[in-house]
Design goal:
By secondary structure, this protein is an alpha+beta fold. The chain has twelve helices and 37 strands. The longest helix has 18 residues. The protein is globular and about 75 Å long. The termini are far apart.
Length: about 700
């Protein structure tokens, strides 16, 4: 009888431990369910208008075991295995709240952003932590549900029984409801510079090897691993996007697909020792995000990632400004000249050449000029890991640092500093104050950082916790000197530009520097994926698609029409935009070049007129503090005729529209080394009066586009 009673009491205890809490979005369409199983395993599920989106999925961690004891023979610390932080929890508390606030970004796709969510914070306790009777550790799971998606994170408050700890694994899963269509790039701990694939989830393993090509630094995470932001579409028309927000003091999350279960699991980028994170309570994880909408345009309009970041941390933001710039770089990218002084190709960053660029930039109203290869250290580092490579202050003999700065300022141009670190991170940090002091001395207010090659310290990855802390450290240090940062080969952004708006741009994806490798559909996917976390320095505006015209030894062709290059300034919003081509190529098309000079960089309002990932995007944006509108449209390899409605304009007013459109015989796909690229540069420009009632049919060539400026 006593035995039966004991079993009965144990069963009652398990039932008592089980817990379910639900949370609805402000509009009621999304519902998140938190659950704690009888075994104390936390999990969540998500539905949209009664349709299951995320099946019940587990949450939690694996920590490294207790290393506080010492082996009596060696006096060395010993590890007692791992600690399961994915089960054995008991429910402590659940707190609900609502938040609704509108904030103003320093720059962005709109001048006001609403941050409206319902929140559930669940506190759990892990009993007998580390096997010690009476010891317990608390973990908080915080859920924020918006009308367009869910954000959740792990929090470890200050507590006696948990201070410093090591993460072996994060157990977060995203269990899908079917074999969805997905737009993805290979999971890699070092780079995102790949083309996107469009496949079913079940086809990722077979397709992934075909999407990989050699990069300066890469480490494929696994045969079914993909990177965030991951865009998916269900067969019944729901759009699902998985990403993360507010990545601070934590490694990047990639996603590993379990093909049998059609489930993704978080895979944290390891450090050089193989650990996934070293944390100290109080601390939090980044937000894990699941965006769910019924219209692709709502993905582009979502501000979920930005809203999950902390408000601006800078008191004075008056020095942060949009920048439209040119650069001494494309002639090096195309192999016409070299970054290194003394090269047989000729050094691009020589004083006379830079002066010519300054003259052109000033004549056409640009703000700044980027100069790459100006400093000592470029001659032998590439492909050879070296610690002390650059000091970021010593120019090559043919680069007059002071004289060129004075020349540029006299013409209203600021020079943009380039700090290629060669991924020797400790070296960059030891020179950081001196480098930024030099920039301050000469009035350089923007820096393009670079991290080409394998990371030094050896064994670290671009997306590991060590490097995340480095990127954020550079960002904060730059803010002290009132310097804006445009990071290349750094981590893809997760909305941190809200907190530190001097982060005006990132690369972190395949941009125009890859020329002929960029597939036609690439730019129709980026706004759904990479651009969800912040702007990209894509370096658009290439007018000469035949690289042989720049360098006779090149055979590459860019698969784009000229008008598609114009449209990118609108479809891929950024407060820092480059006119990527050389002056001589712009001089051939002065009327088309006018759009690049006219287009705004900062916006009051953005309207997404038409969109489907991998196919097309049409976007209209209203310039900040102005009545001017700009419209851009891009397509994949398929020609399209689409109707643009101008109902975003103010009713009752008349406007003048200047339309840049592909000519009837334009073609951005058919250009090959044999056929040349003449069809890429065929376009028509016309002007017409428009109102809010105007409907305009526009034809886009294969891999083409159009651009419109409206006054």
């Amino acid at each position: 009888m006593k035995y039966i009673l004991t079993l009965f009491m144990m069963a009652l205890a398990l039932v008592a431990n089980a817990r379910t809490e639900t949370l609805k979005s402000p509009d009621g369409n999304l519902e998140m369910t938190f659950s704690l199983s009888e075994e104390g395993t936390p999990g969540y599920a998500l539905s949209y208008s009664g349709r299951e989106v995320i099946k019940p999925s587990p949450l939690g961690y694996t920590f490294r075991g207790d290393a506080s004891a010492k082996d009596p023979k060696t006096y060395m610390h010993v590890s007692y295995g791992t600690v399961d932080m994915g089960s054995g929890f008991v429910f402590v508390d659940a707190v609900r709240s609502e938040f609704d606030q509108t904030w103003e970004p320093v720059w962005g796709e709109e001048s006001h952003i609403r941050n409206h969510y319902n929140e559930l914070a669940v506190t759990l306790a892990k009993k007998d932590f580390k096997g010690k009777v009476g010891k317990d550790v608390q973990m908080v799971l915080r859920f924020r549900l918006y009308d367009d998606g869910l954000g959740f994170r792990y929090e470890f408050p200050a507590q006696d029984n948990l201070k410093y700890f090591i993460v072996m694994d994060e157990l977060t899963q995203f269990r899908m409801t079917g074999d969805h269509t997905a737009w993805w790039i290979a999971g890699d701990y070092d780079t995102q510079e790949y083309n996107y694939a469009q496949t079913r989830l079940s086809e990722i393993r077979g397709t992934l090897p075909k999407m990989i090509f050699n990069n300066a630094s890469q480490h494929i995470a696994g045969p079914t691993s993909v990177q965030t932001s991951l865009q998916m579409k269900t067969d019944d028309g729901l759009y699902i996007n998985i990403h993360e927000a507010a990545l601070v003091n934590y490694p990047v999350m990639t996603l590993t697909l379990n093909e049998e279960e059609q489930s993704f699991k978080a895979d944290l980028t390891p450090d050089a020792t193989g650990y996934r994170g070293r944390l100290c309570a109080p601390c939090t994880s980044p937000w894990r995000t699941v965006m769910v909408v019924d219209d692709a345009r709502k993905i582009l309009a979502s501000r979920l990632i930005l809203n999950l970041n902390e408000p601006c941390a800078l008191e004075d933001v008056s020095w942060i400004r949009p920048v439209k710039f040119m650069g001494v770089w494309w002639e090096m990218i195309t192999g016409l000249r070299s970054w290194a002084y003394g090269s047989r190709l000729g050094h691009g960053a020589n004083t006379e050449n830079v002066k010519a660029y300054i003259d052109f930039a000033a004549e056409h109203g640009f703000d700044a000029l980027l100069v790459e290869g100006w400093n000592e250290g470029w001659r032998d580092w590439f492909g050879n890991q070296k610690d002390e490579v650059f000091d970021f202050v010593t120019p090559f003999p043919d680069f007059d640092l002071q004289g060129l700065n004075e020349y540029a300022h006299a013409k209203g141009i600021r020079l943009m500093m380039h700090h290629e670190t060669s991924s020797s991170v400790v070296n960059y940090e030891r020179h950081l104050d001196e480098a930024f002091s030099l920039m301050k001395k000469y009035g350089y207010d923007a820096v393009k950082t670079g991290y080409v090659g394998d990371i030094i310290p050896y064994g670290e990855y671009h997306y590991g916790q060590f490097m995340i802390n480095h990127y954020n450290r550079v960002l904060k240090k730059a803010a002290e000197y009132k310097i804006m940062v445009n990071g290349h080969e750094a981590v893809r952004p997760t909305g941190l530009c809200r907190t530190y708006p001097n982060l005006v741009g990132n690369e972190s994806a395949m941009g125009m520097e890859f020329r002929g490798r960029v597939l036609p559909h690439h730019v129709t996917i980026l706004p759904f994926t990479r651009l969800q976390g912040g702007p990209m320095d894509f370096t658009p505006g290439i007018f000469e698609m035949d690289m042989r015209k720049n360098n006779p030894n090149s055979t590459q062709q860019i698969h784009s029409t000229l008008c598609k290059q114009l449209a990118l300034y609108v479809t891929q919003a950024s407060p820092i935009q480059m006119a990527g081509d050389m002056p001589k190529n712009y001089e051939k098309h002065p009327e088309a070049f006018r759009f690049i000079k006219d287009v705004a960089l900062d916006w009051d309002k953005s309207v997404y007129l038409a969109a489907e990932p991998g196919d097309y995007i049409i976007t209209a944006r209203k310039a900040k503090g102005s009545d001017e509108w700009f419209v851009g449209g891009v397509t994949d390899e398929n020609a399209r005729e689409m109707t643009v409605s101008f109902d975003f304009l103010e009713p009752g007013r008349k406007y003048m529209a200047r339309i840049y459109a592909d000519a009837k015989d334009a073609d951005g796909v058919g250009n090959t080394p044999e056929t040349g690229s003449e069809s890429c540069a065929k376009y028509e420009i016309k002007e017409m009066k428009v109102t809010s009632k105007t409907r305009l049919k526009v034809k886009m060539a294969p891999s083409g586009g159009f651009a419109i400026s409206i006054k």
